[in-house]
């Protein structure tokens, strides 16, 4: 198995969530109640074409994992032994294992290139899109680790949280097989959002849970394993982007509604991959490395541009000269963006990583749309004459014609070409010749790839457009054409709709902290440190209990009267009340706690309290002030920063912090409130 990266997967943070943020992972009930997720994954036993593909991919991933373990062991033995005979035997075994690995990777590449599985069932003839398969993961059992942490850190009976742990495990199991629709996206986002709470509750800088997350590379099947929760988060986010690509590829693009849905899906896929690229570092698998994500973002944007061209083709009803030139420029734009993707795939790190079928498909599309740009230019020149007597129209047409070409065509001036039918015919014929050459190149590249040859719909598209250009060329060809046709210039690419990168908006899926019975995150989180729970027995005397309460969820002991009964019983300023007479009140409002205390006025009352601790008193005080100021918000909603704001620092999750950010702990560390000036926290308090 692949060695874990030396530096664990990280996410970059600049600033923590601010008090002005309006978007949160969920709306929390103030009573700590919680209902399980209603979202479920696909039936793993359902024999759909896509599920069979995923099962085969999972099987190959497991075989690759086994072979890599064998190779690692053989390599270690080869380095350790000094016996030449053993070295020869191990070298032979290594060659056999490497051969098996190569065969498995080729088989996995063929599966990952099965683009037709994800395409629409429509009979419309459209160029297929390139979808991305989901990352596979092994089952992870966090039961023991979480139970131990609850016992050690929170000091509670872990068996009381069996239901919550089971729900978490079921949610992770469900997100391994998301359906290929909006429900599947919501399932992945729900788990992604839930990881925020998991990180806050159980992952601290001082102690690691010891849980290993295993994920397989989406394209090569190479396994990676890390203990960092950031790796789990990043892999889920990658699958969100991959699922968007599958949803986009399956849309029926024979109508504008389907095209719009495809555009939206591919733009959101680009946003997910871009968000991953900007917020992660030290990726243990190549599919989540910066070069790979950059390539995927460009690929998604190219497919958006292709959809834009298809929509313009459908909606262009008039056959005006300038309309056809616009189609030519849009097609040239699609060709250019695919050429950029092709160059990205040719980079050293990507060259041997990206499937050959992907590279071939991108090259085919670049040539195909370049051919279409010349074809529409020829149609504009030869089939659509200018209306007579329109001086303003002639100027507009001449301007559009000049802007359409990347360089000025050789020969007569443009105004003469536009007014002379014969010159227009010859220039149009030159464009058609270039179109035919480009079509033939696209068909040649297509024929070199075994996987693309199996895609009948792609073969049909290339054949139809090639024949159309040939027929048009034959129509314009004359027996007395003895003059050599001038070389037509390239079409200047231009688009009227540039693709947008739409970041993921996690606030669309509301979730509730599964482990919220542990208490509000402002106090009861993995990074907080507090002393053991103390039980204080109070008897009400004349003059009251002798304590001042402030805030809620949980209620804070703002002060104790010197010499009062509360002080004598051991209650201290800065204590948090977590239970009254055995009734949990971590989520209780100020008034509810007061009511419980007053209802016990005629007898002894037991108050369970905890006290937060910290080594940095100044930072503790500042943190406590901020927590108290925003406690009302936290009782109802928890933060979820939307990617729609376009900030790379916006994250719903607290990832592994980098050292340079550890100093900024105002919003990241908890502490006691012993030396606070409580009047600066809240203007409502009560003496009891």
UniProtKB/TrEMBL annotation:
Region feature Disordered, mapped onto this chain: 1-54
Coiled coil in keyword set: yes
InterPro entries for this protein: BRO1_dom, BRO1_sf, HR1_rho-bd, HR1_rpt_sf, PDZ, PDZ_sf, RHPN1_2
Annotated Pfam families: BRO1 (PF03097), HR1 (PF02185), PDZ (PF00595)
UniProtKB keywords: Coiled coil
GO biological process terms held by the UniProt record: negative regulation of stress fiber assembly; signal transduction
Segments forming a coiled coil: 94-121
SUPFAM superfamilies in the record: HR1 repeat, PDZ domain-like
UniProt feature, compositional bias: Basic and acidic residues: 1-10
Biased composition (Polar residues): 27-36
All residue ranges annotated as the BRO1 domain in the record: 128-479
Keyword Protease among record annotations: no
Domain (REM-1) ranges: 43-117
Annotated ranges, domain PDZ: 535-599
Protein family: Belongs to the RHPN family.
Name the record gives this protein: Rhophilin, Rho GTPase binding protein 1
Upper taxonomic lineage: Eukaryota, Metazoa, Chordata, Craniata, Vertebrata
Gene expressing this chain: RHPN1
């Amino acid at each position: 198995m692949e060695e874990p990266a030396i530096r664990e997967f990280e996410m970059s943070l600049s600033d923590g969530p601010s008090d002005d943020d309006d978007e949160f992972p969920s709306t929390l009930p103030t009573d700590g109640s919680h209902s399980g997720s209603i979202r479920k994954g696909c039936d793993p036993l359902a024999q759909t074409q896509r599920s069979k593909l995923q099962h085969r991919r999972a099987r190959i991933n497991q075989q690759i994992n086994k072979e890599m373990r064998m190779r690692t062991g053989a390599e270690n033995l080869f380095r350790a032994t000094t016996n030449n005979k053993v070295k020869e035997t191990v070298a032979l075994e290594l060659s056999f294992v490497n051969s098996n690995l190569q065969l498995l990777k080729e088989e996995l590449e063929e599966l990952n290139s099965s683009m037709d599985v994800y395409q629409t069932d429509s009979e419309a003839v459209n160029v297929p899109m390139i979808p991305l398969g989901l990352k596979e993961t092994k089952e992870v059992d966090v039961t023991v680790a979480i139970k131990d942490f609850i016992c050690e850190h929170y000091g509670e009976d872990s068996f009381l949280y069996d239901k919550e742990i089971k729900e978490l495990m079921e949610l992770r199991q469900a997100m391994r097989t998301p359906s290929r629709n909006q429900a599947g996206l919501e399932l992945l986002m729900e788990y992604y959002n839930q990881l925020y709470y998991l990180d806050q509750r159980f992952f601290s800088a001082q102690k690691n849970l010891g849980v290993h997350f295993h994920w397989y590379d989406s394209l090569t099947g190479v396994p990676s394993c890390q203990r960092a929760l950031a790796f789990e988060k990043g892999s889920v986010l990658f699958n969100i982007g991959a699922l968007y690509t599958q949803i986009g590829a399956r849309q029926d693009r024979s109508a504008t509604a389907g095209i719009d849905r495809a555009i939206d899906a591919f733009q959101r896929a680009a946003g997910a991959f871009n968000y991953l690229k900007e917020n992660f570092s030290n990726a243990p698998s190549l599919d989540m490395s910066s070069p790979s994500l950059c390539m995927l973002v460009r690929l998604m944007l190219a497919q958006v541009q292709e959809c834009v061209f298809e929509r313009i083709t459908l909606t262009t009803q008039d056959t005006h000269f300038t309309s056809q030139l616009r189609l030519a420029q849009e097609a040239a734009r699609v060709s250019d963006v695919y050429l950029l993707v092709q160059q990205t795939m040719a980079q050293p790190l990507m060259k041997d990583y990206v499937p050959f079928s992907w590279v071939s498909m991108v090259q085919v599309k670049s040539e195909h749309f370049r051919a279409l740009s010349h074809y529409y230019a020829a149609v504009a020149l030869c089939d659509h004459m200018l209306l007579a007597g329109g001086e303003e129209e002639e100027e507009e047409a001449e301007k559009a014609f000049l802007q359409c070409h990347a360089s000025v065509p050789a020969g007569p001036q443009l105004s003469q070409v536009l007014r002379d039918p014969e010159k227009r015919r010859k220039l149009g014929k030159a464009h058609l010749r270039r179109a035919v050459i480009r079509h033939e190149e696209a068909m040649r590249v297509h024929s070199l790839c075994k996987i693309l040859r199996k895609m009948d719909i792609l073969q049909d598209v290339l054949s139809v457009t090639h024949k159309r250009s040939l027929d048009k060329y034959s129509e314009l060809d004359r027996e007395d054409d003895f003059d050599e046709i001038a070389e037509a210039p390239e079409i200047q690419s231009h688009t009227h709709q540039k693709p947008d990168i739409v970041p993921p908006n996690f606030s669309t899926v509301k979730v509730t902290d599964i482990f919220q019975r542990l208490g509000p995150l402002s106090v009861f989180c993995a990074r907080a440190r507090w002393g053991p729970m103390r039980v204080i027995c109070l008897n009400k005397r004349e003059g009251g209990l002798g304590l001042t309460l402030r805030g809620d969820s949980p209620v804070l002991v703002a002060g104790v009267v010197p010499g009062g009964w509360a002080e004598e019983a051991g209650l201290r300023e800065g204590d948090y009340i977590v239970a009254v007479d055995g009734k949990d009140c971590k989520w209780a409002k100020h008034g509810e706690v007061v009511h419980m205390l007053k209802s016990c006025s005629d007898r002894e009352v037991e108050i369970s309290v905890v006290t937060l601790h910290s080594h940095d008193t100044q930072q503790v005080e500042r943190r406590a002030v901020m927590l108290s100021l925003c406690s009302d918000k936290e009782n109802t909603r928890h933060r979820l920063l939307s990617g729609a704001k376009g900030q790379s620092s916006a994250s719903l999750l607290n990832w592994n912090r980098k050292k340079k950010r550890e100093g900024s702990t105002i919003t990241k560390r908890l502490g006691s409130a012993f030396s606070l000036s409580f009047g600066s926290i809240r203007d409502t308090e009560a003496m009891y």
